[in-house]
Amino acid sequence: MQREATLTARPSALAGTAMLSGILEGMSARMSSPVLVGRGDHMGALEAALDRARAGGPSAVLIGGEAGIGKSRLVNEFTAAAAEAGARVLVGGCLDLGTEGVPFAPFAAMLRGLVRELGADGVAALLPAPARASSPGCCRSSVRRV
């Protein structure tokens, strides 16, 4: 007995994609494991950085590596868990521009997101009181330029 499977592409609601009908219908073209595998040490380092920040200390983490190794997945998993626990996590990214780069691009991206979320006055209110009191109005104008 010979069996055949017929696959036909039909347009999907998403521009530039097609859904398969037949034996693969209902399958996602992009698959990812519901479990983050092999990143326990990395998640531990991120959680330790969050613990330092919660204790009032400075904390920043730089994640780097080759394309496709799971940097975005790691960050997404961590930020989701941290947000669920009530933390605010600021994320910025870099573009590989060869030997030249935009060194402050990640920080500008983080601050832009924070200004969108809190507004300029809200971001200025996060600064330590001595910085706000030493020069009234300076913080607000510098935050708005971001």
Give the distance, in angstroms, between the N- and C-terminal Cα atoms: 68 Å
What overall geometry do the principal axes of the alpha carbons give?
globular
Q: Measured on Cα atoms, how large is the radius of gyration?
A: 22 Å
Q: How would you classify the helix and strand content by structural class?
A: mainly alpha
Proportion of strand residues: 5-15%
Q: Summarize the amount of helix as a percent range.
A: 40-55%
The strands making up the biggest β-sheet line up spatially as 1-2
Number of domains: 2
- Low-confidence runs of at least 5 consecutive residues: 1-18, 139-146
List the quaternary state of the chains.
single chain
Number of strands: 2
How many helices?
A: 5
Calculate the mean pLDDT score and round it.
75
Biggest sheet architecture: 2 strands, antiparallel
Helix-strand sequence: EEHHHHH
Features:
146 residues; mainly alpha; 2 domains; two-stranded antiparallel sheet; 2 strands; disordered N terminus; disordered C terminus
Q: Summarize this, please?
A:
The protein has helices spanning 40-54, 71-84, 105-126, 129-134, 138-144; strands at residues 8-11, 18-21.
